[in-house]
Structures are given as structure tokens and as C-alpha cells.
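Board notes (copied after class):
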Amino acid sequence: MTDTADTASNTETILFGAFDRHNLGDILFPHIVARMLPDRRLRFAGLAERDLRQYGGHQVEAISTLAGLCHNHPVNVVHVGGELLTCDAWEAAVMLSSAKHAKSVIDQRGASRWAPLEWADDRLGSPTRAPYVIPRARFAQTRSLAFNAVGGVELDRCERGMREEVIGTLKHASDVTVRDAITLKLLGAEGIAARLLPDPVVMVAELFGEVIRSRTAIDPVSSIREACPSGYIAVQFSADFGDDRTLDEIAGQLDAAAALHGLGVVFFRAGIAPWHDDLEVFERTRERMKTPSVRILVSPNVWDICALIAGSSMYCGSSLHGRIVATAFALPRVNIRHPARASSHSKQSAFAATWEDTDMPGEVGVADIKQGIDAARQIQHARLARVAKTLVLTYRDGFQSLSASLA
């Protein structure tokens, strides 16, 4: 056995990210990275200790606890993916709150801005403005610190102290990869030599396709497919789309698209943490619709969600990872832009612009949903399959460099 192999066998690798709460992409990240690191001793950590196995996730350790337990041991830390660079302590605390306590945390935004480090230490056990960006010094014996296809599209708009904290950590990382060209440019301007790497979820069909396809043949997805024999559009959007005027528009647009293409519509939640999706909003949309076959997938299990998308005719929604799962299975896709967002920049549009063909619609307004669906369905399957394969090959190649950076 070589010295390198000896070091790897004795060094625990901590996979860290926001998979301590329910969100489709975040829960999938550690599954994918773990499969890509088969010979490593792995531990799974977030900001909070959580058990998400009932949703298809992991038993997650709190990073603050783990830092104490591993004080005398060498570790690698891999940030597994996601829009981690721009998530501040207040946002993290809201997303980790229960529905019962989320409002009280939201009301504390002023306090979090007045004394950000003290507030973060009290709420999250970590005096940091960017709690999902772990500095090398967090562990006493950090061997390697890696960032795997992370995002930071709005990093230049973050508060100065937070931005400096993030940049300082990245400058001391062993390997930094980002998932879109906007983040790459922002980091390059700060002197950080990051590399482009597709989001890890582009690997979901390659690594877990058999598992996912097997779930399309059993409930709850099988009964949905039976109810929509001509196929369906898998639809999702976050709860903040839920005002009556917006839902009227979405319902009308989906009815028109479903009628034109002879499809049903199935709603699903890509996340059930605060600020994500809400069954009640989907039910209100369904009540407004005329399409004969409209269903709602209630299950929050990520493998059921992936199976629903994989078994669909296309994806339409606000979730980046709903889009990327569809991409991995070579399906048409289009994202929906919130009516209140004025900026053209988003993680959804940035990913599409970086990795997809220019005629595949990226993000459309709610008034253009039918047009976006029509445009996406015009793309030939062979081209969709080519993009999916290219992303898999690109991710595998880039991940080899990240893997090699680990002690």
C-alpha cells in the first residue's frame, strides 16, 4: 500500500452542505459525492443535527459537534454543492427552523444584521456570516478543503463583511469548483482560480437511474402515471408564487400547454423546508384548472420526486434541481421566474446559460409558461441525450481533480 493510500485510509472525509433540511438538490448532493468517493471514510455534516432518512436523505451530524469530536484527527472537508456562497446566517436559520418557529426567526432579521457574528453564534453555534462556507481553521487538522460545484451568482450583492469572509475562506481552499460562469467570473475578479464543474445532480441518472426508474413502477408514482396515460408535465413552484393573481395566470398557462400537447399535469414539492413549496398552493392552483388529469404528488421522498420527473414528459418549475434531474434524464425543461424578481440573474438562468444549448429555454415569466413549454418540447430527444451525456463526462473528468486534492 502506498503512502497516499495509507493517508486516505486514516483521514476522514466530511461531506458538508445544506442537506440538514429538506430540499431536493441538497439531499441528492451527498449521495452523489459519496458514490464518487467509494474508498473514503465518510461522515455527513450540516449546520444542525438532523435525521432525514425518511425523506431519502442522511443521518446528519452538526458540524460544530463534529469539529470537537475530530479535534485530534486529520480530516478532509468537501462542500458537496449548492448555492452555499451567498447563504447568510439569517437565511440558514430560517431554512432550518420548523414551520412553527420560522416566523420568529424571520422577525429577527434586524437583530441578525445589527450583530451578525453574535447572532449567528447564538442561533447556529458558529460565529460566521456565511455558515455554509467552512474555513480551514474550523477543524484543528484540516488536510484538504474542497468546494464541489458550488454557486454564488449574487455574491457581489452580499454585504461586504460576508463577501470578504467567503473570499478569504476560498483563498485557502485546496480546490474550488463552481457550477456557473457568473460565479466563476466573480471569483476570478477576486483572484481565486476556480474551475467550472456542472452541478453534481447531472450525475443522478448515471449513478442512480436504476433505483429511480424502479420507483416509477410502484406507488405513489405508478398510480399517477396510470391517471395520465398520455404523459404529464411535472410542475413545481415555491410557495411565494401563491398570490391569487399569479396562480390564475399559472393555471391558465398550464391548461393551455396541457391541452395543446395532450398531457396531464402533476404538481410536486422540491422542498418542504421554510421558503420552499406548499401543497396548499398546488391545491389552489388545481382548483383553478380545467385540465382533466391534474394530480399532486404528496410524497416528499426525494427518490419518489426523482421518479416522478424521470417518468414525465417534461419539467416546468422554479427549482434548479427539478430542472437538472430532467436534464439528467434527457427531458425537456423550463424554469419559472417569480413575478417580483426584477434581476435577470438567477442560479437557474446561470446554469442553463453555462451548460445548455441556447435554444433550450432557461427561465420564463409566468405569462410565458406555455411558450416556454412549447419551445422546450421542440428540442429533439437526441440533442437532449447528448447534453445529458456531455454533462456526465464533464463532471466525471472535473471531479477527478477534486478527488486528487484530498489528502
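Comment from the instructor: The chain has two domains: 3-197, 203-391. The chain has 18 helices and 14 strands.
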